[in-house]
Each structure stands twice: as C-alpha cells, then as structure tokens.
Amino acid sequence: MAASVVVVGGGLIGLSAAVHLRRADPQMRVIVLERARVGDAASGASAAGVRAMGRDPAERALALASLARWPDLDRELESSTGYRRGGGLRVALDDAGWAEARATIGPQRADDVPVELVDAAAARRLASAISDDCRGGVHCPIDGQADAGATVHAWATAARRLGVRIEEGVGADALVMTGARVTGVVRSDGAPATCDTVLVAAGAWSATLLGKIGVELPLRSRGLQMLLTDPAPASLTPVVGCFGRPLSLKQLDDGAYLIGGGWPARVPDERVNHWEVLEDSVRGSLEVARAVYPPLASRIVARSWAGIEAFTPDEIPLLGPVRGVEGLLVAAGFSGHGFALVPAVGDILARLALGRDPLHHLWSGLGADRLRA
User: Fold this and answer.
1) Average pLDDT of 313-337?
2) Number of C-beta neighbours around residue 361 at 10 A
3) For the chain, which domains are there?
4) Would you tell me how many other CB atoms lie within 10 Å of the CB of residue 219?
5) Which residues contact 142 (CB under 8 A, 6 or more apart)?
6) In sequence order, what are the beta bridge partners of 117?
7) Which of 100, 122, 150, 357 is the most exposed, fewest CB within 10 Å of its CB?
8) pLDDT at 105 exceeding the cut of 60
C-alpha cells in the first residue's frame, strides 16, 4: 500500500507541502483536512508581502530560497498568484530610524540579502510621493508582493490537479498515538484517518491539537488587522515600510492601497476563527501610513479585516519533527510573516516526510523543539 500523509490545515503552508509531496511521489496518498475553507484564516488575510529584507537571521537563507522561486511560481502552479517584484523600501523619518537603517545593512549583506542604503533623493526616486521627512532608507530589489486570495487558489488548484484530496469543513479533533508514534487523526466528522505521517500546519490551532499528546509549544494567537483603501492612480511600486513605525504599504493592481504592519485586532475566542477590528488600530495604522506616504490622506478605508496568526515568543517559526514523537511534523508560529516562505517550507516538509535531504541548512535555527521545555 502507498505511504500516506494527513496534512492538518488547509492554509498555504499545508497546501504547499501537499503539492510537493505529490510531485515527489505521485503514488503517495495525501489528504488535507481544513476545518473551514482553504485559506480562511491567516493565509487568506495575509498582507502578501514577499520579502527577504528585515528578517531574523535564522530566516534569511529560507527566505532567499523561497524568493528565488516566486518569479516562476505562476508557471509552476499553472495559475496566477498576482506576484510582482517591485522591490521593498523601508524608510527612516527621524534620526533614530536613520541610525537603525544604517546598522541593518552589514548583517543582512553578510547573509547575502541584497540590500542597499539609499539617501532621501534615492528613496524618492523609488517612491516619489514619500514624506518630506524621509531621511533615506533601505532598499531590497528582490522583494515584492502577491495577492493572498489568488495565491491560496493557485496552490489549492495545483494540489487538486496533482491528486491531493482536500476536505473542507473537516478538522482534526485529536492525533492517534500508537506507542511513541502518531498513526492517524481523529477527524471531526468521525471518519477514520490512519496514515504514516501527520503534518500539523494548523496555524493558531496547532498548539491545542499538539497539546493533547503532550507536545507543548509556546504559541499564542493574535489578530492582525488589514486596511484597504479606495483606488487611486498608480504611483507606488515598491512595498513600503518604516523604521520605528509599524507599516506595510502596497498599492495593488487596481490602484487601492493595502495597509498592514501588525496592528492588532481583537480575538474574543482563540478556538474559533472570529475577530473584531479595533478602531484604535484603524486610526493608528492610518496615521502612520499617511505620515510616511502623504497621498493616503485623501483616501478612504473601503474595507477592514483581520487574520488570526500564531506567534512564537521569538517571532520566528517552528518547523520540522518533534523529539520523542515519530510520524509527526510541525510547521507553526510563522508570526505574521510566513507568506513569502511558502514555496521553500512546503519543499522542506515534503522532504522530511519522504526521508530525503531536508535542506537543513535553510532552517537549522527554526527547529520545532527549540522552545520546548
């Protein structure tokens, strides 16, 4: 009988792993269990930035490996992700920000991230309407953006085309243990699901599921707010951030601006995918965005929403096998910046499940056991 993998979580990480598994072994039975609909949680609500700049050192090699694949991802998946490589620009509006900008260049270049320090004039050539207070910033030409919804659709469509069975509206209530090995999943619909490997990529709900078998991971859920403005004439190419101020700003193909940056939303109950946008966050996000990019002062908020994301204490992911538990792989705690990493993480998880070269040099600092007691 062919080996089988159950993927718990139909977000981008789980879908990418499923695609890579079927590509590597077309005989493998791969089932994705998604408690709601694919992309309903963090993946579909992502700001969809595709960046290498500004990452933790432990993530840089992984980010570079993923960014190398994004330009060809539409062809690879046979569907549009809305990806475009317009660069990333993180600006400084004060002395403290400018000092931080200068300090970030050396360590990133040492890890092969192609960043460059730009003065105010160069920053305005990249984003002509940037604030007059701009002292300069850091530019990364390989950064870019995609469309979150389109990207979820592209990965899900590719998975189904390759023979992955995606079951929506079906969650995993528990993991089945035989000795020290995970041998299946207790599905929410009561149907049996035995398998050789379980891959838990359930985002904010991973900790609860894993805790039932004694794997305690320090994951905490947060709601992250997004704002979308009315459309405006095209004027902004790079993704814009700001030193010392929470901002991720993109102009979409239709001219609307997408504003993020980690502003919190309220999550009344972490057990369900429910959130409430906070007026203080809306106001604060707009103030920062308009201070950095003044044309936003004339724009109105057309839509606001949030995604529920799992955070680790050090805000970098947990990835790989779990000590003392065979047949289990974990990919969780992407802390609001996992979108760009999806191609490489899916490949790594598939390799681990298949017992092949796991590309450990890309994620050696992200092991799933590193924060366990």
Assistant:
1) 96
2) 9
3) 4-48+149-219+314-362 (3.50.50.60), 88-141+221-311 (3.30.9.10)
4) 24
5) 52, 67, 85, 87, 114
6) 138
7) 357
8) yes
